[in-house]
């Protein structure tokens, strides 16, 4: 069964690399008009713009730091000019590795601001642009469900996305807007896929499917949640980790 998003406008934050890039490709191939935003990597942005042009359709790649209220306001003006939003995919984020003993307040704020507050800014900014039946999908992390040493700030922010999304599902449900989280496990974002490292082989041995995930496998779940096939799915966290 193919999913057709022709006539739908989609926003993908952090859309130029890894999972975000795969989501942008997948939504575009399904017929959506995609706006992808990025913070600083001009080369990756130019590559994505070329790739989306090759797929075909009306797509844009724009610079926006979604942790900045001013940048988000400009991003929403851009999306308004393109006819509103039917799909919002919150993918932009950062990661950090520090134990609590090492964790500084600045590092805590950096991760929480980029991984949690930025999603609040984007969704709140998009409220007036979301059409009836729109879908908001946020990329969380399976680590939020089990914890991960050295990443208390990261898992706290990703856990916060679950509560945030469940509450928004109840607030926005009467308007027909669905809000869900996709929680990936260990995803190999190398393009093209290379020879697995020793660490990747070790992690793969802990996964039921005995391999790491690929960005397109996360993107396919996002596509489902963005489509009418998931029209009665909201407030959910879908784990995509191969049975870790």
UniProtKB/TrEMBL annotation:
InterPro entries documented for this protein: KR_dom, NAD(P)-bd_dom_sf, Sc_DH/Rdtase_CS, SDR_fam
All residue ranges annotated as the Ketoreductase domain in the record: 8-218
Enzyme class per UniProt: oxidoreductase
Pfam families per record: adh_short_C2
Molecular function (Gene Ontology), one example: oxidoreductase activity
Enzyme nomenclature, EC number: 1.1.1.-
Family: Belongs to the short-chain dehydrogenases/reductases (SDR) family.
Protein name: SDR family NAD(P)-dependent oxidoreductase
Domain of life: Bacteria
Keyword entries, A-Z: Oxidoreductase
Lineage start: Bacteria, Bacillati, Actinomycetota, Actinomycetes, Streptosporangiales
Oxidoreductase as UniProt keyword: yes
Alphabetized NCBIfam families for the sequence: PRK12826.1-2 (NF009466)
């Amino acid at each position: 069964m193919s999913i057709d998003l022709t006539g739908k406008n989609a926003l993908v934050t952090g859309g130029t690399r890894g999972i975000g890039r795969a989501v942008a490709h997948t939504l575009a191939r399904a017929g959506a008009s995609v706006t992808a935003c990025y913070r600083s990597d001009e080369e990756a942005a130019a590559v994505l713009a070329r790739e989306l042009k090759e797929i075909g359709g009306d797509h844009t790649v724009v610079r926006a730091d979604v942790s900045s209220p001013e940048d988000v306001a400009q991003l929403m003006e851009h999306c308004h000019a393109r006819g509103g939003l039917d799909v919002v995919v919150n993918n932009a984020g950062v990661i950090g590795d520090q134990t609590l003993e090492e964790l500084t307040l600045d590092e805590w704020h950096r991760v929480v601001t980029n991984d949690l507050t930025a999603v609040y800014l984007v969704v709140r900014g998009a409220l007036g642009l979301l059409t009836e039946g729109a879908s908001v999908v946020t990329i969380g992390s399976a680590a939020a469900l089990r914890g991960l040493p050295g990443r208390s700030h990261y898992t706290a922010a990703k856990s916060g996305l679950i509560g945030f999304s469940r509450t928004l599902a109840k607030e926005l449900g009467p308007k027909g807007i669905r809000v869900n989280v996709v929680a990936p496990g260990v995803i190999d974002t190398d393009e093209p896929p290379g020879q697995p490292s020793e660490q990747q082989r070790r992690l793969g041995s802990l996964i039921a499917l005995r391999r790491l995930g690929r960005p397109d496998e996360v993107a396919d779940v996002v596509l489902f949640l963005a489509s009418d096939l998931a029209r009665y799915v909201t407030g959910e966290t879908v784990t995509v980790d191969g049975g870790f």
